[in-house]
Automatic annotation (TrEMBL):
<dbReference type="GO" id="GO:0006397">
    <property type="term" value="P:mRNA processing"/>
</dbReference>
<dbReference type="Pfam" id="PF14382">
    <property type="entry name" value="ECR1_N"/>
</dbReference>
<dbReference type="GO" id="GO:0000176">
    <property type="term" value="C:nuclear exosome (RNase complex)"/>
</dbReference>
<dbReference type="InterPro" id="IPR019495">
    <property type="entry name" value="EXOSC1_C"/>
</dbReference>
<keyword id="KW-0271">Exosome</keyword>
<dbReference type="GO" id="GO:0003723">
    <property type="term" value="F:RNA binding"/>
</dbReference>
<dbReference type="GO" id="GO:0070481">
    <property type="term" value="P:nuclear-transcribed mRNA catabolic process, non-stop decay"/>
</dbReference>
<feature type="region of interest" description="Disordered">
    <location>
        <begin position="67"/>
        <end position="86"/>
    </location>
</feature>
<dbReference type="InterPro" id="IPR012340">
    <property type="entry name" value="NA-bd_OB-fold"/>
</dbReference>
<dbReference type="Pfam" id="PF10447">
    <property type="entry name" value="EXOSC1"/>
</dbReference>
<dbReference type="InterPro" id="IPR039771">
    <property type="entry name" value="Csl4"/>
</dbReference>
<keyword id="KW-0963">Cytoplasm</keyword>
<feature type="domain" description="Exosome complex component N-terminal">
    <location>
        <begin position="8"/>
        <end position="44"/>
    </location>
</feature>
<dbReference type="GO" id="GO:0000785">
    <property type="term" value="C:chromatin"/>
</dbReference>
<dbReference type="GO" id="GO:0005730">
    <property type="term" value="C:nucleolus"/>
</dbReference>
<protein>
    <submittedName>
        <fullName>3'-5' exoribonuclease (Csl4), putative</fullName>
    </submittedName>
</protein>
<dbReference type="GO" id="GO:0000177">
    <property type="term" value="C:cytoplasmic exosome (RNase complex)"/>
</dbReference>
Length: 253
């Protein structure tokens, strides 16, 4: 049954009929056929391998998910002892989803919103950790390398157009005194921002928020071109010149 389905799907691609499968996450039904709603690996979940119940076909947002048939084990009749299973480590080149933590570079600041280019999609459980570069599987997994390159003004090129674009609206910058937010005092072009996805938006932009203490600017350069360090939730300082600049600062870990 799995051999009739593609390994990877693109939005709008027909996957099968509702007479053979149930529609799962990442799919939709139209005219009795199941179509992919997003791009990603095609997963077929068989709840009970020995039964004749239809399998569930879905499309995963994680590009590192292995496509194909996945059989869910039948639960044991007795309650097993509690065990702590190791959570699989996600790669950092997954597609943005609602509640994803992302690192993005500010490319434009306007009166009502800031436009950012998403650099890395982080696993929420490890968003505060920078992995060992010797253990990463690809360049997309090396957060330290990406941020070092992104923070260099010389690398602010047309490559941003090839990344996922997102908007941070004025009302999503912080949780308090939203009417007093001045976007030029929250972000500057070139800042590296930690935010979370609140909406998939339209086909052009995701929507992010920084309205949490741990979200906001994590890396920024001063007007003199020096890397700054945070001194409060709304101010960063140039260690060379001593000048302070306003930002919506993320709480350091």
């Amino acid at each position: 049954m799995a051999s009739t389905l593609p390994k990877l799907a693109i939005p709008g691609q027909q996957l099968g009929s509702i007479t053979s499968y149930f529609a799962g996450p990442g799919t939709h039904v139209k005219n009795a056929n199941i179509y992919a709603s997003i791009a990603g690996p095609v997963i077929i979940e068989q709840t009970q391998p020995s039964s004749k119940v239809k399998a569930i076909v879905s499309v995963s947002r994680n590009l590192n998910t292995q496509p194909g048939l996945v059989a869910k084990p039948t639960p044991a009749p007795s309650t097993p002892a509690k065990t702590t299973a190791a959570k699989p480590k996600l790669r950092y080149n997954t597609l943005p989803a609602v509640d994803s933590i992302v690192l993005a570079r500010v490319t434009r600041v306007q009166k009502r919103q800031a436009t950012v280019s998403i650099l890395v999609v982080l696993d929420a459980s490890s968003s505060a950790q920078i992995p060992d570069s010797s253990k990463t599987a690809s360049d997309n997994d090396n957060i330290a390398s990406i941020l070092t390159s992104a923070a260099n003004p010389e690398n602010h090129s047309n490559s941003d157009e090839l990344r996922f674009q997102a908007l941070i609206r004025k009302e999503d910058v912080r949780a308090v005194e939203k009417d007093r937010v001045v976007m030029d005092e929250m972000f500057r072009v070139g800042d590296i921002v930690r935010g979370t996805v609140i909406s998939l938006g339209d086909q052009s932009f995701y929507y992010l928020t920084t309205a949490r203490n741990d979200l906001g600017v994590v890396m920024a350069r001063s007007e003199a071109g020096n890397m700054m360090f945070p001194v409060s939730w709304k101010e960063m300082r140039d260690p060379v010149t001593g000048a302070a600049e306003l930002r919506k600062v993320a709480r350091p870990f």
